[in-house]
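Project outcomes to date are best conveyed with an example. Our students and postdoctoral researchers have been running inverse folding experiments weekly, and each run begins with a structure described purely in tokens. The record below, which covers 191 residues, was selected by the lab manager from last quarter's runs and is presented without edits.
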């Protein structure tokens, strides 16, 4: 998980400025280091470890004193919670479906606040990138959906991911904005 550097931000800013000159549609890019902190997961995994240890003690050592069994179980739970509180491990432990849901939800809230809620009612898209979850989505409004097929946005995401995997986030964002601009300029020329 990383943040955009100054050079990456400059590339993105230049690409967005060029987009404004080529299309009347609004293009917003939102990058976040992570979509959620997933604070509940260390507790959940700590509980699972505690139950597993307790079941193992009950089956393997049935004559253990209650005090000793509780102490071992509590220690295992605390260690598990502390281990899963370590950020990289916590992020790996979160199921992909849960990460995708958090990213999707944040992307659509950002779209609503940055595109739909604007007073000028200008049509537009949001390119959402969550660096920690490695999630990318292009969110569009209904008018854009009628004019630009989903296959265009899928290609933008595919190209972005290929460039980003090579470690060039700034270049990937700039190229994605250029591709989005090309798709929008055909239907939404500058005013």
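After processing, the design step wrote out the following sequence:
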């Amino acid at each position: 998980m990383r943040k955009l550097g100054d050079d990456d931000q400059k590339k993105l800013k230049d690409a967005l400025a060029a987009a404004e000159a080529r299309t009347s549609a609004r293009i917003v890019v939102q990058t976040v280091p992570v979509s959620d902190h997933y604070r509940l997961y260390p507790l959940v995994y700590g509980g699972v470890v505690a139950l597993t240890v307790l079941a193992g003690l009950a089956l393997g050592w049935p004559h253990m004193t209650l005090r000793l069994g509780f102490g071992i179980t509590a220690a295992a739970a605390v260690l598990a919670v502390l281990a899963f509180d370590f950020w990289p491990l916590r992020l790996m432990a979160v199921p992909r479906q849960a990460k995708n849901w958090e990213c999707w939800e944040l992307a659509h809230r950002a779209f609503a606040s940055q595109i739909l809620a604007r007073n000028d009612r200008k049509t537009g898209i949001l390119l959402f990138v969550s660096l920690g979850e490695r999630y990318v989505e292009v969110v569009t409004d209904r008018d854009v959906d009628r004019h630009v097929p989903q296959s265009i946005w899928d290609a933008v995401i595919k190209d972005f991911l290929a460039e980003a995997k090579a470690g060039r986030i700034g270049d990937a964002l700039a190229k994605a904005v250029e591709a989005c601009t090309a798709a929008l300029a055909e239907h939404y020329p500058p005013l």
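The first strand starts at residue 26 and ends at 32. The mean pLDDT is 93. The training component of this project remains on track.
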